[in-house]
Amino acid sequence: MKKCGKCKTYLEDGDFSFRKGRLQSFCKNCQKECSKKYREKNKKSCRRNLKEWREENKSNRGLDSQQVLQEEFRSKMRRMLKRKNDKVEDSLLKYSSEELKSFLIKTFDTLPKEGIFLSYKKPLKEFNLSLEEEWRKAGSFENLILKFKET
Q1: Nearest by Cα to 66 from 122, 134, 128
Q2: Same domain, 21 and 39
Q3: Inter-residue contact 127 to 137 (CB < 8 Å)
Q4: Could you tell me if 47 and 119 lie in one domain?
Q5: Each residue of 5-26: pLDDT tens digit?
Q6: Domain limits at 73?
Q7: Do residues 36 and 72 share a domain?
Q8: Per the structure, how many domains does the chain have?
Q9: What radius of gyration, in Å, describes the C-alpha atoms of the chain?
Q10: Do both 140 and 68 map to the same domain?
Q11: What is the number of H-type helices and E-type strands within the chain?
């Protein structure tokens, strides 16, 4: 049993992270909360640091060009879902974030949120995302589905 330096509760050792062979002074939940507050307070520098790290470690990730395109595709879809009141049409997908959201709500009665994620009937790996035509097929409304995360 160890006392958390932040929430002052006694917890099992498994609720604390190890660093340099020793237990941290904050429990995992408090550490997570502190990290989240720090990232919110320092958004720009965190984004810049992450971008720099990704550039420096691109070759170390071991992704082939198709996997990079799949990540780019998923990222684009996430950004479209996060936009608010955006009527700008995506040039490759040929629909706006507003149209995407209304399709998901009309079809599935919900948008992706915690426990529910956007997926694809035909997996992205089966498309050649370097071609515009394939990019459109992968992102077509007919290929989109919502799935529940398994716990």
Answers
A1: 128
A2: yes
A3: yes
A4: no
A5: 999 999 999 999 988 889 999 9
A6: 64-148
A7: no
A8: 2
A9: 20
A10: yes
A11: 5, 6
Instruction: Summarize pLDDT for 34-47 with one digit per residue, the tens.
Output: 999 999 999 999 99
Residue 110 phi/psi, 5-degree rounding, is -165, 170
Residue 140 has pLDDT above 70, yes or no: yes
Residue 79 sits in the same domain as residue 133 = yes
Alpha helices in the chain (DSSP H): 28-41, 43-56, 65-82, 97-108, 132-139
Both structure tokens of 1: 């049993």
What is the spatial distance between Cα 131 and Cα 128, in angstroms, rounded to a whole number? 6
28 shares its domain with 102:
no
Backbone φ and ψ of 120, nearest 5° = -135, 135
Model pTM score: 0.57
* Nearest to 138, CA basis, from 60, 66, 70, 62: 70
Please compute, for residue 31, the number of CA atoms within 13 A of its CA located in the half-sphere on the CB side. 12
Domain-ending residue, one of 11, 31, 56: 56
Who contacts 72 (Cβ-Cβ below 8 Å, separation ≥6)? 129
